Amino acid sequence: MTELLAPAGSREALIAAVQNGADAVYLGVDEFNARRGARNFTLDELRGVVSYCHLRGVRVYLTLNTLINDRELHALSSVAHGASEAGVDAILVQDWGVVDTLRRVVPDVPLHASTQMTVHTLSGIEEAARLGITRVVLSRELNRDEIASLCLQSPIELEVFVHGALCVCVSGQCAMSAVIGQRSGNRGLCAQPCRLPYNGGHPLSLRDNNLADYVPELQDMGVACLKLEGRMKRPEYVAAVTGIYARLLREHRKPTDEERAQLAAAFSRDGFTDGYYTGKHDRAMFGVRSAAERWPEDWFARLRAEYEQERMRTVPVRFSASLRAGEPITLRASDGDGHTVSVTGPRSEAARTRALTAEEIDARLRKTGGTAFTVSDCAVELDGGLAVSAAALNALRRDALSAMEAARTALPARRSLPYVAPEPVPNTIALPRFTVSLHRAGQLTDALVDCAPAMIALPIEELAKVDLTRYPSMRFCAILPRVYRTGDEPELRALLTALRKRGLSAVGVGNLGHLALVRDYELEKRGELSLNVFNSAALRFLKEQGLDSAAVSFELRREQIRDLQKCLPCEAVIYGRLPLMIIDNRIDAGASRTLTDRRNESFPVLEVYGGRCEIENAKTLYLGKRSDWQDVGLSYVRLRFTTESPEQCAAVLRAHVDGVDCPPEDLTRGLFYRGVE
């Protein structure tokens, strides 16, 4: 049965979701979640939240789906302990260091791979399953055929995002907010630069997703869960959208015209899009919310008046009462989820005046007002001529419902193990070696090779154009695409095989699915930037998965890089345009292939594997010949060439090798000294 998962950004939104038919809710605690701007919950509140939901048959998923730095790992483990003890049903994760930590401290809590983990292939799903993850939230860019195929083959549950705001960047791969304003989307503080104007329009602002028409189709595919977005939206919005989707799931149907209009009235950005699901990637996917749009206050007021009474979602129970002469009264209650409880009261007495009837007992036991229960059926076995006080029957009913509540909210038995920090590893004292990454094969020249970098990396499809035998002493790395599809894997394997025969030394791993692709190749496996390595636990995890080195996130500041326990050789970018977004769509960047913002900053737009777009920073990161990056324990420092000419690539590398200062015209120090919030 397909689950409906609704957002709960506040207590009010939680009630709205539960009362309007959600099967599960997802919520954040404190600051360790991807919506730090929502009201969220405290750890002290979580036990009551879980009890409220479990009593009504609703599961609770905790979002710990952000990047965590080393100083936060211990606090994260405390949150995980509290969440496990509160009885949450699963935890959503993005950071591999978080996965590693949770598996060690709360090994019995199910983990779900957040869409921030960028899983979009069968190999990625299978790797998640191998690691003990029980559900994958699929990337939002997959189409209906891809989802259907994955459902047929997946060894674990799959979740699909069906309604609400869409990020134009593939989830987990956006650094635009971080680089421009230090507000990291990977840490739950995205400032939504994609909603701003560029080139005089809004080429990055997607309309909200709406797959209501495809609910029966998704059910028939075997999708385990349909997810609604909206932790930052009003509780009334949550009530409206949850209620409609709950009816569609329950009745296995498409929405009526009235329901379509209600979804649009609740919130839209100049209409909706189903472009990713249907495979129609065009301008119709893009739109902005008009300044004239207003919340439908009258309708929202009616919705609020209903769900605030908290009587829309009750638990039906069946009562079976037995009143026998000379025996204690017994009342058994059972629900539809397999719980049965039994309580006893005083002995029945002979009636002095009028005997009690079964109808009177039935009426008394059905008075469940003020509880989460309703009585669906009441069977009464009654000897004749007996009398029982109303107070005794009321107490019996209260005891039975209290016992049923305890049964429904009982906590699972789980292990809670102490946090153990990654083992200290002394920083290397050797100077880091230079590596180079190129965007296209044409940037590779003899002059660049003559500078003798430790490694030259290119996208695998570009490296296939290079005659590696010309450079027998140079080590080359093939960077696998961070976004691709299951159907692309045969081509990628063929390219890897051909390049290996021609002398390939290494492969760049940037996605969970890559692990399966590269496992059988005798190649050095280098973790790429898209793995978002943010803490020492992530390095420990990647080492266990067989990686030989890892690039650390460029959202880390200098001191954080220095303090990483480098159980793997680490690499950081010290020169080049930083990648801000990868977009599984073609965007309108004009003939110049740049996006110019309100401050007249121009962001180059490059084409990458599969015809996708990658937006680069307007400024070039340059740390120069400063010693600041030389003494933080890095084994490698990367010069990342994107828009540079072949001559510029060679000249910049030569200057770095020779220790000559060569600042670009429009430079930035990036986040190396600032870090992110």
Provide the fold topology:
Blueprint: E1 3-7, H1 11-19, E2 24-27, H2 43-55, E3 59-64, H3 73-86, E4 90-93, H4 96-105, E5 111-113, H5 122-130, E6 135-137, H6 144-153, E7 157-164, H7 176-181, E8 208-210, H8 215-221, E9 225-228, H9 235-251, H10 257-266, E10 272-273, H11 275-278, H12 297-307, E11 315-323, E12 328-334, E13 340-347, E14 349-350, H13 358-365, E15 373-382, E16 386-387, H14 390-408, E17 433-437, H15 446-450, E18 455-459, H16 460-463, E19 476-479, H17 489-501, E20 506-509, H18 514-518, E21 524-527, H19 536-544, E22 549-551, H20 558-563, E23 570-576, E24 579-583, E25 594-596, E26 602-608, E27 612-616, E28 620-622, E29 636-640, H21 646-658, E30 667-668
Parallel strand pairs: 1-2, 1-9, 2-3, 3-4, 4-5, 5-6, 6-7, 7-9, 8-10, 11-15, 17-18, 17-29, 18-19, 19-20, 20-21, 21-22, 22-23, 23-29, 28-30
Antiparallel strand pairs: 7-8, 11-12, 12-13, 14-16, 23-28, 24-27, 25-26, 26-27
Helix pairs in contact: 1-9, 2-3, 3-4, 4-19, 9-10, 9-12
